[in-house]
């Protein structure tokens, strides 16, 4: 008789530009084992497989004992940012060939008279007009001819197009022509990816909906190939559990997609990596009793920030590169200042940090891999915020001389010493992050000083306390494994789906209930297909996009769980949302409900193990640069800090996945879950403002 191994372990993976992070969690005890391996830009699945089976071997766990695998990735996002995906052809209703080129005629920077408009992802030569037309009321003004569609696509394919997007007028309410066009294309070109706007996200706003289809077509084939390769490699290596990918909405879904589902996955996973981190922070906040936090996820190329007030923040107005994304996504603000960001002096003699990054190869000069340009990490080394003797648990040797040589030209150009130039670079990076976070907090109507900062990513804990000073944030929380929090978020996050249906101004309670009920039925069916008993706590919430009659912009309104679905409940919710957004009462105007939504979220059960220090606490003498002065400090090894251990800044805390810098005037204590909680004293914050 063969005894099946007990499945009790969950794997979370986050694929970043520099490192691929892996977390193995024991679902019975909450114990975590983490690892980081270098990412492989050419073959990202290779790094995932290496990291997964490396951590399984360390833990003595067989692949058959894994019950859940989920991963976040930046593959899809980078494909869009680098415009390296498929060449896309676009089919539009005759008379609308400039749909993408015109866009919204909105200036991102109104005072810049020389601003260049966003360049569409589809070249104008790859747009084809199709003589078909639905009116807004659903009447067919001009019937679709499938032969015309096939002829247009044949012309595009002959010209080198690799995928097709279809975006017809009013198709969000009347998708029949898009469906028929897709069927005709599939019959004539069975291997050609076809993305239909109305099938991906049936919401009004022609430009944004067309952009969704174009993004899906651009990324779909590349992402599908990556997921297929990853799935095959994991299966061949013995992993038999369901495989999942984190989505932009902060949830997870299966990666065992049918071909037509890959296109949906492509556009729904564009913010997969950052969303995993925010999901991890939400779980951390629940475990530690935090409510209002600002996240700081700093890696090698950028800093991702979000304001979390009890739940994951969502937006339907995200921007991917230069392209709007109306699909609900975790609201994350990014800035190009990561640990690998290049430090330089521009032609005007101004010190700049980023947005260009040294990447994983060659990386910062101090890594000794041939990098010659100074980076923010080199500045940290020269300021003493990193310990060269115990960086990444000894896995990487830090070359201080190389960092000094790289920073020397910057120092010379500024007339400063190398240490002064390094500290100036850190100050510039801090100012850049401050400038990004202040308006983000203002959008949420919260003073930064009322928030707790949660710092993670490989570089976040180095920079966090300095940024907290600038923002007057009183406390910084560094998780027990900050360098792998995004991977932990991937395995701990909810299973989630967002569905939308256009309703076009309906104010009849029965019609609204019918639309919501239909979406809820679809959401529950999706959950039945996706879940494998690991996400038992299911919640369904109902939303609507509402405006006043005559307005052009809607507000999302949630329906309280105990409210009777209908206009009265929406009116109350709309008034509250309107006051939050505009600080005035909407008045008695008639409501215009444009679309309804349903969100299903199913929570995973996962305990957290208490923190246990390994080894005796020890500290070694060190020196840091603060305000141009060399200051005595201590270096601590994080694994040796027991619960309740207190540190007084300046101090450097070394860990395998990150380094934590505690500046002068700050105190830190280890809590019961291993989080290092850094308090910035009021006196220090006043000094920071002076």
Automatic annotation (TrEMBL):
The record's Gene Ontology cellular component field reads: cytosol
Domain Hydantoinase A/oxoprolinase spans what residues?
Answer: 209-497
Q: Where are the transmembrane segments?
A: none
Which GO annotations describe the biological process of this protein?
Answer: glutathione metabolic process
Task: State the Gene Ontology terms under molecular function.
Answer: 5-oxoprolinase (ATP-hydrolyzing) activity
Q: Which residues form the Acetophenone carboxylase-like C-terminal domain?
A: 510-672
Annotated Hydantoinase/oxoprolinase N-terminal domain residues: 10-187
From which residue to which does any coiled coil extend? none
Superkingdom of this protein's organism: Bacteria
Q: Which SUPFAM superfamilies does the annotation name?
A: Actin-like ATPase domain
Stated name of the protein: N-methylhydantoinase A
**Organism whose genome encodes this protein:** Actinosynnema pretiosum
> Lineage, please?
Bacteria, Bacillati, Actinomycetota, Actinomycetes, Pseudonocardiales
């Amino acid at each position: 008789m063969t005894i099946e191994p007990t499945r009790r372990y969950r794997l979370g993976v986050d694929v970043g530009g520099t490192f691929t992070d892996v977390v193995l969690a024991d679902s019975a005890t909450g114990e975590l084992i983490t690892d980081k391996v270098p990412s492989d830009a050419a073959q990202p699945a290779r790094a995932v497989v290496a990291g997964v089976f490396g951590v399984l071997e360390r833990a003595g766990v067989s692949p058959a004992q894994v019950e859940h695998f989920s991963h976040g990735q930046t593959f899809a996002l980078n494909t869009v940012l680098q415009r390296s995906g498929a060449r896309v052809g676009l089919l539009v209703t005759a008379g609308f060939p400039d749909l993408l080129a015109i866009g919204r005629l909105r200036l991102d920077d109104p005072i810049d008279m020389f601003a260049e408009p966003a360049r569409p992802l589809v070249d104008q030569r790859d747009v084809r007009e199709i003589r078909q037309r639905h009116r807004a009321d659903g009447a067919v003004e001009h019937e679709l001819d499938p032969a015309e569609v096939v002829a247009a696509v044949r012309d595009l394919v002959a010209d080198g197009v690799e995928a097709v997007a279809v975006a017809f007028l009013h198709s969000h309410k009347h998708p029949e022509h898009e469906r028929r066009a897709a069927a005709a294309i599939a019959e004539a070109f069975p291997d050609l990816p076809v993305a239909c706007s109305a099938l991906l996200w049936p919401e009004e706003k022609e430009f944004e909906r067309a952009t969704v289809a174009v993004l899906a077509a651009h990324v779909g084939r590349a992402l599908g190939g990556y997921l297929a390769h990853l799935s095959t490699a994991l299966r061949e290596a013995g992993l038999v559990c369901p495989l999942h990918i984190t989505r932009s909405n902060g949830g997870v879904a299966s990666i065992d997609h049918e071909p037509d589902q890959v296109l949906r996955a492509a556009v729904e996973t564009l913010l997969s990596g950052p969303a995993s981190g925010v999901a991890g922070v939400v779980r951390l906040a629940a475990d530690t009793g935090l409510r209002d936090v600002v996240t700081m996820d700093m890696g090698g190329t950028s800093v991702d920030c979000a304001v979390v007030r009890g739940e994951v923040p969502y937006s339907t107005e995200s921007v991917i590169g230069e392209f709007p994304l109306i699909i609900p996504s975790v609201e994350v603000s990014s800035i190009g200042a990561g640990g690998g960001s290049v430090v330089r002096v521009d032609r005007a003699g101004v010190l700049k940090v980023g947005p260009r990054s040294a990447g994983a190869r060659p990386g910062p000069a101090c890594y000794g891999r041939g990098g010659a340009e100074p980076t923010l990490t080199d500045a940290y080394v020269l300021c003493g915020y990193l310990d060269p003797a115990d960086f990444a648990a000894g896995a990487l040797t830090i070359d201080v001389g190389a960092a000094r040589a790289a920073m020397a030209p910057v120092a010379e150009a500024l007339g400063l010493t190398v240490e002064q130039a390094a500290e100036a670079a850190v100050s510039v990076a801090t100012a850049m992050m401050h400038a990004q976070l202040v308006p983000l907090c203002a959008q949420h109507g919260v003073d930064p000083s009322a928030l707790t900062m949660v710092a993670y990513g490989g570089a976040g804990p180095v920079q966090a306390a300095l940024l907290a000073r600038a923002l007057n944030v009183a406390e910084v929380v560094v998780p027990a494994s900050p360098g792998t929090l995004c991977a932990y978020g991937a395995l701990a996050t909810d299973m989630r789906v967002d569905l939308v249906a256009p309703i076009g101004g309906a104010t009849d309670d029965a019609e609204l209930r019918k639309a919501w009920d239909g979406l809820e039925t679809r959401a529950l069916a999706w959950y039945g297909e996706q879940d494998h008993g690991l996400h038992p706590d299911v919640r369904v919430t109902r939303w609507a996009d509402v405006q006043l009659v005559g307005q052009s912009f809607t507000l999302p309104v949630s329906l309280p769980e105990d409210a009777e679905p209908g206009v009265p409940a929406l009116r109350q919710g709309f008034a509250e949302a309107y006051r939050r957004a505009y600080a005035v009462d909407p008045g008695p105007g008639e409501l215009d409900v444009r679309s309804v939504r349903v969100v299903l979220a199913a929570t995973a059960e996962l305990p957290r193990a208490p923190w246990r220090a390994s080894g005796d606490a020890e500290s070694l003498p060190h020196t840091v640069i603060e305000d141009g002065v060399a200051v005595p400090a201590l270096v601590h090894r994080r694994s040796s800090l027991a619960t309740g251990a207190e540190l007084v800044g300046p101090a450097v805390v070394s860990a395998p996945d990150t380094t934590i810098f505690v500046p002068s005037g700050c105190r830190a204590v280890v809590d019961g879950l291993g989080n290092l909680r850094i308090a910035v004293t009021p006196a220090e914050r006043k000094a920071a403002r002076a």
